[in-house]
Amino acid sequence: MNIELKSVRKLRIHWPISVETMTRLGQGEPNALEADAGIVRLLDTLKASPELGGFGNYHHVFESSAGFEGFTVAEGANPTLGNVGQRTISPTFVFTSYFDAALDEPSVRLLVQRIVEIHPWEVPVIEVSGPLSVSTSAANILQERMAS
């Protein structure tokens, strides 16, 4: 099998979820994401972004994990969760996908802006990496299988 590398940038979004969603995910129920209105809104918004998650014949590819996000609310904040001076721990869904490293910066900023507009936090955690390489070999695998 011939492995090739594709130059991409990573997009990671930290999104709060309910304790119920976290519990269901922990019990091995991936369809719990479909019952969480916030996650459905996020995934629908990202599905409308064709530049995300393209891997050959696979589209809208993403990875996710559930965990916890911690923060302390400072004076002047308008928190969705927590109170000033209080340490808060929130169940969190982390969405990760990739887009072509050649995508122009205005398009990247527009993508991030669409996420910020729907995110429930006052200050969302959205990470955009610099270029990195991921393996891509689907076309080669198909060609090898057809040749045998």
Number of helices: 4
Instruction: Compute the number of strand runs.
Output: 5
Name the helix and strand elements from N-terminus to C-terminus, one letter apiece: EHHEEHEEH
Instruction: Report the average pLDDT across residues.
Output: 90
- Main sheet: strands, sense, barrel: 5 strands, antiparallel
Counting copies of identical and different chains, the oligomeric state is: single chain
Entry keywords:
disordered C terminus; 148 residues; 4 helices; 31% strand; alpha+beta; 5-stranded antiparallel sheet
Secondary-structure topology with pairs:
Elements: E1 4-16, H1 19-26, H2 37-47, E2 63-72, E3 87-100, H3 105-118, E4 125-128, E5 132-136, H4 138-147
Antiparallel strand pairs: 1-3, 1-4, 1-5, 2-3
Helix pairs in contact: 2-3
Describe this structure in words.
With 148 residues, this protein is an alpha+beta fold. α2 packs antiparallel against α3 (105-118). Strands 1, 2, 3, 4 and 5 form a 5-stranded antiparallel beta sheet that branches. The radius of gyration is 18 Å and the shape is globular. It has 4 helices and 5 strands, in the order βααββαββα.
